[in-house]
Amino acid sequence: MSGIDYREMAGGAFVTLLGVGFASYAAIHYTVGTVTRMGPGMVPVALGVLLAVFGLVIIFGSFSSLPQRGEIRIFVPLVILGSVLAFALTIRPLGLLPAVLACTLVSTLAERKLSVVGRFVLAAVLGASAWLVFIVALQLPIALVNWPF
Amino acid sequence: MDLISNIALGLDTALTPVNLMYCFFGVFVGTLIGVLPGLGALAAISMLFPMTFHLEPTTALIMLAGIYYGTAYGGSTASILLNIPGTTSSAVTCLDGYPMAQQGRAGVALAMTAVASFYGGIYGIIVLSVFTPVVASWALSFGSAEYFALMLLGLVAASSVSDASVVKGLAMVALGILLATVGMDPQSGTARFTFGSLSVLDGLSISALAMGLFGVAEIVSSIGRTAARQLDPKAITLRKLMPTRDDFRRSWGPMFRSSTLGSLFGALPGTGPTVAAFVSYGVEKRISKEPERFGKGAIEGVVAPESANNAADQTAFIPTLSLGIPGSATMALMIGALMVHGIHPGPKLVTDQPELFWGLIMSFWIGNLLLVVLNLPLIGLWVRLLSVPYHLLYPAILMFICIGAYSVHYSAFDVMAVMGFGALGYAMRIFGMPAAPLLLGFVLGPLVEQHFRRAMVLARGDFSAVIERPITGVVLGITALVLIWSIWAGMRQKARMRDRKLTAGQED
């Protein structure tokens, strides 16, 4: 009844690659040293190898496990991560208000329950509350609006 | 008489207007987050974590702790009214709380929950204030080898008790420690895994990691799945909150037993409020004279898990404050908050920073009192909050995450890091890999590495000399037992699931 669980296998491969990556990068660039005089590379190399071994065990287990259910989303994570990116890219050059507006307008694309007007209203409300909380109340040194031109 | 002067000192600290205000703020936000389904204590603490950088360490800890035990109070509200646990530790409360609500006794269930939570909290605080100094004085003689062994035990226990497989938990611990090595190596001054970037020379930011792994990844998985339900706030009025004498009579025993169990599980590494709640429910059902009432709205089934998880919330601070070893990811964040201020929790914390330790403990008393006040009369407000739709909520949460991450160093790089960890967190969810062990590994990583290196130097590279130290040997032995037991339990569970699937297949 049990078959190969490809998602589990991919997870194991992901972990293995991370481990090999950390270990080999550390082994090439940092001194490993000896057990009594450990260099900065010792712990990363050892843990990287350990991580790769764990990954191989997960891959090995995937040959005899029950396939999991649960959808993999592509669109929603991209939109949400995109909204964080939008904030990161706009906060320095443009200031707090444009960054909050950009972040909210992008993130509301993920769940289409709001109309276009609704999205702008929500963005405006959040922008105003960000100004009240972070600039008026907490007095963080962030510019509300920057003019780069 | 020492205790009395310590309590006085603690009250002095906890009752300053600033600390009182942040204590109130913490429990208020905690209740709020606990009530909202799909947002746990970890997400809440990581979101407000950057704020604590601007506060005194004691105030910061009082606020974070308030959020932590506040969510346990709030989580039960969603469990009882909607049959949706607001937090994992209140999942058991659904079993009898929701049937009580269906029978029109929601008010009684909520009131008894507040009473049981308060009782469990107080019980936990007393255990905490008695045992922390004892453990701390005992731990003063510990060397690097003992610390290394204890941290290893903590990490192994935390990764094997989670519901995912042991090997996945351990892999995430290793990944967490590896992520913690990014930045300047304190012993040799070498910049590790920085790829020439100055932004990560101080290491990756713990708040970015926590907000990405628990905040952003949580939002991605919750969108479109968390439906708000309409509830009539008038259905629960103060008059309907009054429990009968019979309710009280049935509750004293379970509350006492469950608080004891909860205190024990809270202090042990790896277990915590969730395990405490499940076990205490099971125990009460087993020793009850009428076990058939459980699951159909028995008051014992509500007060047992609620007093257990609140007691466990408090005693989780014992290893955190006395040894500096967190038993859970939430406690790891508490330690992270202290480390940002240059305080390394350990056995000397109680004697060196008495106003921090006793102030925190006294703030627990005040916070628990505030929670009873917040929860009973304001219940209508929390009920209304439950009906805020998620599509309005998540953009606001994202905004707080972004601004929070940015405000730590005013660097856009930290916001990018949140995005990166969010992507990692979602990938880990797809692959069924637990995030809590990663955070624990990340916080303990530098300490584990430092103590390991030092212990090996002192033992002249001879590992058997490390094991032969009595405490170290015993702790490492327990670690091995935990590991073997959890591997065995995991294999048995897998086999059982396969059997069930086989028989189900034959019936088709």
TrEMBL record, chain A:
What keywords is this UniProt entry annotated with?
A: Membrane, Transmembrane, Transmembrane helix
Q: Which Pfam families match?
A: TctB (PF07331)
Q: Is the Cytoplasm keyword given for this protein?
A: no
Q: Which InterPro entries match?
A: DUF1468
Where do the DUF1468 domain residues begin and end? 11-141
Q: Where are the transmembrane segments?
A: 12-30, 42-63, 75-100, 120-145
**Statement: the UniProt record of this protein carries the keyword Secreted:** no
Question: What is the name of the protein in this document?
Answer: Tripartite tricarboxylate transporter TctB family protein
Specify the taxonomic lineage. Bacteria, Pseudomonadati, Pseudomonadota, Alphaproteobacteria, Rhodobacterales
Automatic annotation (TrEMBL), chain B:
Residue ranges annotated as transmembrane are: 20-49, 61-85, 106-131, 137-158, 165-184, 204-224, 323-344, 356-380, 392-412, 424-448, 471-491
What name has this protein been given in UniProt? DUF112 domain-containing protein
Q: Name one Pfam family in it.
A: TctA
Query: What InterPro entries is this protein classified in?
Result: DUF112_TM
- Superkingdom is Bacteria
What keywords would UniProt list here?
Answer: Membrane, Transmembrane, Transmembrane helix
| Limits of the DUF112 domain | 20-440
